[in-house]
Amino acid sequence: MPGKFFAIGLGIVFGVLALFLSPLKAVAAVFAVVVALSVLRFPLWGLLLFVLLATFMPYATVNLGIRTTVSEALLALTWGALLWQAFIAPESRLPVTGTTERWLMVLMLFSIVPFVIGQLSTQGTASGLSNWLRWLLNLSTLFLAAKLLQERKNRELLVVCLLLGTLAMLLLSIIVFLRTRSASGMLPVLTFFSYGNLDMLGFGLNALSSRMGSPWMHPNATGGIMALLLPLALCFGLANEGWRRWLGLCVALLGAAALLLCSSRGAMLSLTIVLLWMAGRRVPYTGRLLMFGAMLVVVLVMSYPPLQDRLVTIFSSDNASTLERFDEYRMFPKAVLAYPFGLGFKLEPPIEGTDLIGISNLWLNFMYKLGVGGMLLFIVVSWHWWRESRPNQGHIVLTRDNSIWLGSLGGVLAALISGLFDHYFSFAVVMVGLFWLLVGINLLEARRLFPARQTQAGPQHLKTGITASGRG
């Protein structure tokens, strides 16, 4: 009987939507209701939809009373589903026991201090509360991984969704760039997906016309997400067979081409360092991949003259981007003195009415926004992640069983190294969500492969005493 009334209620809701909305909006609303109900019953579906959309069209927006990205709306919906299930079935609750997770929770609690100080000491039109809550929501993907991805088959499914979304994004970006030969060619696509601040975005893309645009909006952000995901795609493709192999290798190949076309120095350098580290640990194929990458650079440079001009100036000391970074470091001490407890969340640098600009460094950006305490806590979180996930001494044998661990380890390392040159993985929403989700996947795989490292291992760590990393 309750099911009958529920079906009748849904029919009435759909009828009202069809009556008062245009056909396209009515279909979209019905689809959204179906997705929401499905996620409420199966929270894992919300996380899978998040990674699909966050990698394909990360900043597509929807108006739910307040305007937000669809990616973050899916995260909030997934948490709502988990809270609902915990309410109706308390036995389904999983405590957070990992050391890394606990320290991240400390960082999130500490952020209350710079948030409150920033609210009281800075003047701005943006909502500091909204920005703070969105940042916390994106950090929470680490806890979603711990709750929803305990089973390895779920982690594999999520990696497949990550790669499918990334493949769709790469195909779209490369095709649009080959047709228009300009970063601004993405603007009609982003307009269709209701991206915000389109006037400012169009101005920025026109200024970067020789570099490939993408749904990540800025070429350096595209490079950052490639640094995070390409090692995972590569290891997943090399270690698997059939369509999974082709999926991973296609993402790796197209991602490498996209990395060159968007010309992100930090991402290229960080991935090179990670590949050299893997080659030093005798991970199969990495030496060949470095040679293949060098050949790909030569082919693309010879076939695309603007890339020649870009590479000539990309590492030059008089490059405009390099000079801007020198200015950022020169002005950074002044910014710290002006905001000793952090800028908080109401303002984003550059700060209007002052000569203070931002800082293109992951760790220093934590200091800029959260003060010295915030930066130190982020370092502590990163250190505990490394202690849990690091490989053992000796060679690393890549197998299907450890491919997700090694690929996610390489991706997180590359993201942290790229943080020496860019700040995107500190407070850029959606990118931060993907970063901490990959950290969560890596921790779960490391705890499965290296159970002896867990001083307080829970039952989920003791189910499989597998050391499938070979000698690594």
Automatic annotation (TrEMBL):
<dbReference type="InterPro" id="IPR007016">
    <property type="entry name" value="O-antigen_ligase-rel_domated"/>
</dbReference>
<feature type="transmembrane region" description="Helical">
    <location>
        <begin position="246"/>
        <end position="277"/>
    </location>
</feature>
<feature type="transmembrane region" description="Helical">
    <location>
        <begin position="132"/>
        <end position="150"/>
    </location>
</feature>
<feature type="transmembrane region" description="Helical">
    <location>
        <begin position="221"/>
        <end position="240"/>
    </location>
</feature>
<feature type="transmembrane region" description="Helical">
    <location>
        <begin position="73"/>
        <end position="90"/>
    </location>
</feature>
<protein>
    <submittedName>
        <fullName>O-antigen ligase domain-containing protein</fullName>
    </submittedName>
</protein>
<feature type="transmembrane region" description="Helical">
    <location>
        <begin position="424"/>
        <end position="444"/>
    </location>
</feature>
<keyword id="KW-0472">Membrane</keyword>
<dbReference type="GO" id="GO:0016874">
    <property type="term" value="F:ligase activity"/>
</dbReference>
<dbReference type="Pfam" id="PF04932">
    <property type="entry name" value="Wzy_C"/>
</dbReference>
<feature type="transmembrane region" description="Helical">
    <location>
        <begin position="289"/>
        <end position="307"/>
    </location>
</feature>
<feature type="transmembrane region" description="Helical">
    <location>
        <begin position="157"/>
        <end position="178"/>
    </location>
</feature>
<keyword id="KW-0812">Transmembrane</keyword>
<keyword id="KW-1133">Transmembrane helix</keyword>
<keyword id="KW-0436">Ligase</keyword>
<feature type="transmembrane region" description="Helical">
    <location>
        <begin position="366"/>
        <end position="386"/>
    </location>
</feature>
<feature type="transmembrane region" description="Helical">
    <location>
        <begin position="190"/>
        <end position="209"/>
    </location>
</feature>
<dbReference type="InterPro" id="IPR051533">
    <property type="entry name" value="WaaL-like"/>
</dbReference>
<dbReference type="GO" id="GO:0016020">
    <property type="term" value="C:membrane"/>
</dbReference>
<feature type="transmembrane region" description="Helical">
    <location>
        <begin position="6"/>
        <end position="37"/>
    </location>
</feature>
<feature type="domain" description="O-antigen ligase-related">
    <location>
        <begin position="251"/>
        <end position="379"/>
    </location>
</feature>
<feature type="transmembrane region" description="Helical">
    <location>
        <begin position="398"/>
        <end position="418"/>
    </location>
</feature>
<feature type="transmembrane region" description="Helical">
    <location>
        <begin position="102"/>
        <end position="120"/>
    </location>
</feature>
